[in-house]
Amino acid sequence: MSGLDGADQAGQTGQATQGQSTGGNARSRRLYTLGLWLAAPLVLLRLALRSRRQPGYLDHLGERFGRYPAPDAGSPPAVAGSEGRPPLYWLHAVSVGETQAARPVIEALRSRHPAARFLLTHMTPTGRATARELFGDTVRSVYLPYDFPFAVRRFLHHFRPDVGLIMETEIWPNLVSGCRGSGVPLYLVNARLSERSAARYRRFPQLTAEALRGLAGVLAQTANDADRLRALGAPEVTVTGNVKFDALPAPALVAQGEAWRASWAGRPVLVAASTREGEERLVLEALRAMQVPGLLLLLVPRHPQRFDEVARLLEQAGLRHVRRSAQDAIGSLRDRSVQVLLGDSMGEMAAYYAASDIAFVGGSLLPLGGQNLIEPCALARPVLVGPHTFNFREVAAQAIEAGAALRVADPTALAHEAMRLFADPAARSAMGEAGAAFARHHRGATARTLDRLPG
């Protein structure tokens, strides 16, 4: 069984092997586990290959097999909670987007349960880095082990969580079974399931249904997500909405972006946010077609391991650019001959959006599924997206219907719509106001989620 969208591909290798097995539930999970063992050399090879571009993939390798260092000596003192210790909430957030979605949930839980402790697990180094940026040392952050039964047992024995929350789109059969056997209620929270992912799950219905039945609850983003999960075997699904609407941009970052913008003396600014491999060339094609005096492009790749690659692309294109990491990068953009700021930083997306007039949200010009467009809407920025938003299908459709976003077919259309909006401040303002209203309208999912959790 493959993990839901966004799962680490190394773990997916073993899961996909099992997805083709048939038979009873116990037999399905045994075959699944056998598939994991057979795929283990490929998993390790993939980690090694990924580490060539992002060395963090080989850090903390033992954690991927359930081996963790002892908690720090400065851990919170034991107070109320099971076995005389404060309750431990464990949230699994695969990578960056899920970790950001976990923020309002953790903040709300902390408000309701001040003594509680929090553990975040991830599958990617970028997810782990995002956790450090958002929470510092107030939340422990580790890798979730691969779904071997022995590793799951080690993980649960080491941390002894009181409640587990899987953010968005990951189900691991042995993890679900281990939690159930250990008495740890495990919830799928902020769940989303595209039709594409549902079709993959339908190829191995018994393993999928067994895992879904093992969850303590499923809290879905939309009615369509809920219907697809029920059709796969989830016995109880509640629609609670999308907690990402509750993840308000940090005021300090918004102020930082607005200060940048003020320092650029009225330059028109387009941000191309969370761009993916192959997409930057298309964005630069659109940039060359735009006839906007003084235009500044903020180009922010989704993955930090690609920063150098995108810098080389800008050099090859002959575009004057500066990297955010460079000394006085922001001040240098007062020079209108500098055309591009390469956003090679982590945790500053809200600042990039706040510094812009128009936001293009990446991952959507190529068939990559798109990225989250809620944040620029919340900041009242008009949003452009490409034709491929299947990972955020309903949010994108709702934003377009609300007048907060426009869909563009290709780089030519991106250039055309951006130029039109730059030339029409009233249209930009109307789209921005529609985006802010759209974001406000959909808030409240976090409170509805917490109402469904124990305690």
Which descriptors would you attach to this protein?
Rossmann fold, seven-stranded parallel β-sheet, disordered N terminus, alpha/beta, 2 domains
Secondary structure layout plus pairing:
Blueprint lengths: L8 H11 L5 H29 L34 E5 L3 H17 L4 E6 L2 H11 L4 E4 L5 H11 L3 E5 L5 H10 L3 E6 L3 H7 L3 H9 L3 E4 L2 H9 L5 E3 L11 H13 L5 E7 L3 H11 L6 E6 L5 H10 L4 E3 L5 H4 L7 E3 L6 H6 L3 E4 L12 H5 L4 E3 L7 H9 L3 E3 L3 H12 L2 H17 L3 H7 L4
Parallel strand pairs: 1-2, 1-4, 2-3, 4-5, 5-6, 6-7, 8-9, 8-12, 9-11, 10-11, 12-13, 13-14
Helix pairs in contact: 1-2, 3-4, 3-19, 5-6, 6-8, 11-17
Total number of helical segments? Answer: 19
Please identify the structural class as seen in this structure. Answer: alpha/beta
Q: Examine the coordinates and then state which fold CATH places here, giving the name of the CATH topology of the largest domain.
A: Rossmann fold
Give the CA-CA distance, first to last residue: 32 Å
Shape descriptor reads globular
How is the main sheet built?
7 strands, parallel
CATH superfamily of the largest domain: 3-Deoxy-D-manno-octulosonic-acid transferase, N-terminal domain
- The level 1 CATH classification of the largest domain is Alpha Beta
Question: Radius of gyration from the CA trace?
Answer: 22 Å
How many structural domains in the coordinates?
2
Helical percent range?
A: 40-55%
In the predicted model, the low-confidence regions spanning at least 5 consecutive residues are 1-23, 72-82
Strand content: 5-15%
Query: Which architecture of the largest domain does the CATH hierarchy give at level 2?
Result: 3-Layer(aba) Sandwich
The strand count comes to: 14
Arithmetic mean of pLDDT: 90
Strand order in the sheet with the most strands = 3-2-1-4-5-6-7
